[in-house]
Write a structure and sequence with these properties.
The chain is of the alpha+beta class and about 140 residues long. It has five helices and four strands. The protein has a four-stranded mixed β-sheet with strand order 1-2-3-4, with helices on both faces. The chain is globular. It binds zinc ion. Zinc ion binds next to helix 3.
Length: about 140
């Protein structure tokens, strides 16, 4: 039996959901507010870019610091178990990211990588995004 009342349960669910603002969603909603249109997760392009601005020939990846081995506090954090397994996995991600970036550049795409840690500071994030997409002020 559920140890929470119905109201308690839904309060918990609300809390869980409000925490679900992933870095990618933050970036997406910001760009929406700027009024730009983009495609999500284009599978035809290397690395399945998170956001694709086809007409501008621009791509944004939003990378999790841990998974993609960012050189920051979160990225350097070591897992508590299976250190070797995760180390190898992250190394593979790094190599794949690098290769995808090279291919995309050869295809004349302009690529921006936004790191998870960069999405925490919204004013900085907005500068990064606006500069990249070319918002006229
Ligand atoms: Zn980071």
């Amino acid at each position: 039996m559920d140890c929470f009342t119905k109201d308690e349960r839904s309060a918990i669910m609300r809390k869980v959901r409000s925490k679900d603002t992933t870095p990618e969603k933050k970036v997406r909603s910001y760009i929406h507010r700027l009024g730009f249109r983009f495609r999500l997760h284009n599978e035809k392009l290397p690395g399945k870019p998170d956001l694709v601005f086809a007409r501008k020939k621009k791509i944004i990846f939003v990378h999790g610091c841990f998974w993609h081995g960012h050189d920051c506090k979160a990225g350097r954090k070591k897992p508590k178990s299976n250190v070797e397994y995760w180390g190898k996995k992250i190394q593979r991600n790094l190599e794949r990211d690098k290769l995808n970036l090279e291919i995309l550049k050869k295809m004349n795409w302009e690529v921006l990588v936004i790191w998870e840690c960069e999405t925490k500071d919204e004013s900085r994030l907005s500068v990064i995004i606006e500069e990249f997409i070319g918002v006229k002020k």
